[in-house]
Amino acid sequence: MPAPPLLIKFVADSWLRREAPFTPKLPIVGNGPPGTFVVFANGHEVPLPTDQIVEDDDASGTAHVGFGGLRFDGIEKGQFVFLRVKDLWPQGRLSPERSWKMTLKLELVAAILVEGILVWPPKERMN
Questions:
Q1: Phi, psi at 56, each rounded to 5°
Q2: Distance CA 15, CA 58 (A)
Q3: Among residues 12, 30, 7, 33, which one has the least CA distance to residue 22?
Q4: What is the pLDDT of residues 20-55, one digit of tens each?
Q5: Other CB atoms closer than 10 Å to residue 6's CB: what's the count?
Q6: DSSP letter string over 83-105?
Q7: How far apart are CA 4 and CA 88, in angstroms?
Q8: For the whole model, what pTM was predicted?
Q9: How far apart are CA 110 and CA 23, in angstroms?
Q10: Are strands 117-120 and 109-114 parallel, antiparallel or unpaired?
Q11: Distance between CA 31 and CA 119 in Å, rounded?
């Protein structure tokens, strides 16, 4: 199985929480998918763009999430920045309120891989 375009490995003692799918009695267009969150040991939750997730795993006690349409854009004001570069779902299944930018605090992330290559932390920090 090839590596996802972007893989974020969160810090230890993190797991995923997914909201249950909801089917309204009346059709709603553009409501978006149920939410996906990374939960940390202190109870803090961070929302993730569910429509961009192509794989996820938290069986090891650490959340790993692969994204298909996000690009790692670097660090800005002490946070990782990820930009939406393409939608993976059909327009009718997406919320018009979806974010085009995801930010994460540095202390929440253990590693970032792009196309299977470690881009953070820098190799000099690992020695």
A1: -155, 155
A2: 5
A3: 33
A4: 765 555 555 545 556 899 999 999 999 999 889 999
A5: 22
A6: EE----S-GGGS-TT--SEEEEE
A7: 13
A8: 0.83
A9: 36
A10: antiparallel
A11: 34
For residue 55, give every residue at least 6 positions away whose Cβ sits within 8 Å of its Cβ, in sequence order, or none.
4, 65, 66
**Antiparallel, parallel or unpaired: β 62-67 and 53-57:** antiparallel
Beta strands in the chain (DSSP E): 6-12, 14-18, 36-40, 45-48, 53-57, 62-67, 70-76, 79-84, 101-105, 109-114, 117-120
Angle ∠(103,105,108) on CA atoms, nearest 5 = 120
Is the Cβ–Cβ distance between 87 and 44 less than 8 Å? no
Which of 35, 34, 89, 36 lies closest to 58, judged by CA?
A: 36
User: Is the four-CA dihedral 102, 38, 30, 7 of positive or negative sign?
Assistant: positive
